[in-house]
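Hi V.,

You were right to ask for the full record rather than a summary. Here it is.
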Amino acid sequence: MNKKKFILLALLLLCAYFYELFGGMPATVPFAPQPVKADTSLLLAPLDSRPPCSAMVRKLGALASINVITPPQELLDNYNTPADKEKLFAWLKNEMPQHPAAILSADLLVHGSLLGSRVPLGTINDEEKFLTFVNKQIWRFFPSFQDCWSAISLYRTAGINGI
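Predicted structure:
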């Protein structure tokens, strides 16, 4: 038993000796990364105004050196109020020539938001307006289909009439 205590004490003293010998704990300097310069920009019409659909996407884009441009907050939905689709289309027409790529949410541009698409708030006229916009505006600014993407959400739904 005394031999174990002696070895433990010797190791403790040895650690204390090397601690003092090398000047104690190393000085730490807080890490502050430099901002990354965006190599490219991307126009995004998000699903809706919630942070995971807009703010977090901008932050993730910054990590990949992509400047993600989203519509101003006042154009987007506010949970119970759908987005102003007319102003969104005007904003997109104005912004598209300035960016090399775009991702558009059909849910936002047809129904006013992802939440609105569950009701659904969009009409046949809204769908036609979106498709006309895609055919006339997008192909004008993005002749290569690889430069512009559109997304729509599909939901799991309960069976209707036993289907």
